[in-house]
Amino acid sequence: MPAKLSAIRADIATLSLDAIVNAANSALAGGGGVDGAIHRAAGPELAQACRQLGGCPTGEARLTEGYNLRARYIIHTVGPVWKGGNCGEPQLLAACYRNALSLAAAHDVRRLAFPSIGTGVYGYPLDLAAKTAVNTVRETLRDFDGIEEVIFCCFSAGDLQVYQRLLG
Ligand code: AR6
């Protein structure tokens, strides 16, 4: 059965799934935006676990437990800082989605949610990022048939509309 793709508007830290994805920084040091919300909800053990991972290069992904979250795992990935689009940003953003899904599949994750990686502090234009996100997830899921559901978790109503249009 093909995986179900959907978009919702929610605080990703509240979702009850096998995994949620975090838009982190390369030091895995915690921060603002979705990263801050996830660290606050997961509790201080998450920062401790992240310190032990020794960072994560842009485009790659790392896994931790979910600690106080309802999600079992957190998959941390680092989006590119938007510099106009000619510095490899689309390839790096696509790598975030591919590497996160690959790590999810390796841990038997069936249902997971992504935030709109890179589109806050890192400045990636939402329309472009959403296209790359949806296309990359669609393509990558062909290789991972254990994944049943992927949710694009949007923070604003406007972002949700963009994702819903791409998925519709
Ligand atoms: N749930 C879902 N989405 C959220 C939430 C939330 N609770 N909070 C924000 N968003 P950003 P980035 C949306 O800035 O651009 C951090 O400081 C937000 O509206 O969180 O990849 C890290 O430590 C936007 O659409 O991540 C890094 O230093 C999307 O999540 C840096 O920001 C991503 O915005 C990463 O920047």
UniProtKB/TrEMBL annotation:
* Pfam families per UniProt: Macro
InterPro entries hit by this protein: Macro_dom, Macro_dom-like
Query: Where does the Macro domain lie?
Result: 1-168
Matching PROSITE patterns, A to Z?
MACRO
Put simply, this protein is called O-acetyl-ADP-ribose deacetylase
Which CDD domains does the annotation name?
A: Macro_OAADPr_deacetylase
What organism is the protein native to? Pseudomonas benzenivorans
